[in-house]
Amino acid sequence: MDLDEIAEGVEQVSQRYAERFNIERDATWFVLKLQEEVGELTQSYLMLSGRARTKGKPLEEIQAEFNAEVADVFCQILLLARASGIDLEKEVADKWLSRLKS
Q: Where does the source fall among the domains of life (predicted)?
């Protein structure tokens, strides 16, 4: 599966979510949802690294939650880029991968 296929699937899931909860997916929503997911990722990381209460969860569960939160942030980035008309593959190639040539 390539990035476009992943982004298309994520878009479909996000549209269903928005319809189900009557959410207007505008530019503000995409940014705020990303911030929410980054916050959840941060909380999971703090628990995983021993810097926050584990709430009685075993390490395996905390690790699984951290993994899932990384995926959530990735998917929200895909949604934000798509909604903003950003060619993410091009931008990554220009900003990051171009440095491999030097």
A: Bacteria
pLDDT at 74 over 90: yes
Give the residue from 35, 47, 100 showing the smallest Cα distance to 72. Answer: 35
Give the mean model confidence (pLDDT) for residues 6-28.
Answer: 98
How far apart are the C-alpha atoms of 10 and 48, rounded to whole Å? 26
Residue 102 is predicted with a pLDDT of 72
Gap between the Cα atoms of 84 and 17, Å rounded: 19
Contact partners, residue 62, CB within 8 Å, separation at least 6? 44, 47, 48, 54
pTM: predicted TM-score of the whole model, two decimal places: 0.94
Express as a percent the part of the chain with pLDDT over 70.
100
**Domain spans of the chain, in order of start:** 3-101
Query: Under CATH, domain 3-101 is a member of which superfamily?
Result: MazG-like (1.10.287.1080)
